[in-house]
Design goal:
Layout: E1 3-6, H1 13-16, H2 24-54, H3 65-70, H4 77-95, E2 104-107, E3 110-118, E4 121-125, H5 134-147, E5 151-156, H6 166-175, E6 179-182, H7 185-194, E7 204-206, H8 211-221, E8 228-229, E9 237-242, H9 248-259, E10 266-271, H10 274-287, H11 294-300, E11 305-308, H12 312-322, E12 326-330, E13 346-349, H13 355-360, E14 386-394, H14 396-412, H15 416-428
Amino acid sequence: MMKVFNEPSINEWASILARPTIDAAQLHDKVNAIIKEVVVGGDDAIKKLTLQFDGISINELKVPVEKIAAAENLISAALKTAIQLAKVNIEIFHNSQIQKVERIETMPGVWCWRKSVGIEKVGIYIPGGSAPLFSTVLMLGVPAKMAGCKEIILCTPPNEQGDIHPAILYAASLVGVTAIYSVGGAQAIAAMAYGTQTIPKVDKIVGPGSAWVTAAKQIVAEDAAGAALDLPAGPSEVLVIADDAANPAFVAADLLAQAEHDPLSQAILLTTSRELAEAVRTSALAQLPKLSRRDILDQSLQRSRLIVVSDLATALRISNDYAPEHLILQLRDARQHLPAITSAGSIFLGAWSPEPMGDYCSGTNHVLPTYGYARAYSGLSVHDFLKRITVQELTPDGLRGLGPTASVLAGIEGLDAHALAVDLRLAAL
């Protein structure tokens, strides 16, 4: 558990930092079969698959409005207050992402701008498993509502009693989710992508999930009749870069916080101090007995790595190559190293910025690219719920000034009809 590597050679990095893998082809075949079953069988197929995979028999897929309303009285006042404060911070941060429409005159009489329109129907997926992720409801529902999505449906697997945790129901009601359905896994993705007798078809599906859920999102996104996806998301991961001034207990706690998510989660420390690496290992072992998700931690920590590097520049280079979902900089003057980071889902600066703050309530979104996708993808934002449509408007003078350019370009490309559409108007001026 939590093996320490002392200054490994560059040739060893790939194997040391290798992420857990699955047989993607075999998984996609199984997921495809589920999707086809839902497309053909609708609600009945979903109920059958829920019994098959979750061992739960459900009669009604849609959660009654009365049950959603009653959820508020089933959670503590402290939890409601915490959810409300988290929602406010998420709203404040995401509101800054909404840009005003600005009309640009590229040359006299030629105006261009871009308007944003909320995606009409979106489906948000909330994983089940061993923890009720009501925080993810906020992370998905708040930006969807702010973007102006008219229909926001939520799918989440029922618990062993066939119910949905009241905190999820309360959070969903708070952010304006329009309907909630007790269904999870690949069958939920299929239902939202193609629609069933009960579950409406949506235009885009967002939210994290298992490898099965991720595969289902990718499959339906490749089908014109399916639904778009947000970003690839796999098991949670964290990479901490720390120097000899870091508090080993803080570092250990951050590593454990992500490791407890999933048996396939990965936690990595890069440090210039051998003493810190050993101290972090000792502290993690001391903290473990206090934690309830020990079975998950025991598995995920087999993939954890405590790595001693020769200098900070090496650590930063390795981090950018790895492109972690969460990156924590426990360094002296952590902010000064921010310009060197080019690939990460979300960054946490300094000793007093624990990763769970981003997970819950600082305001940033916790739906982030994993598995190295942070090299090209960003975390979820309001923009994921918007369509951005470009507009152009030319005055007669604008066409007179720019039209001949378009005609020449069209002619060279051999697109005569393009040129004609311009030339006819030029002749009419």
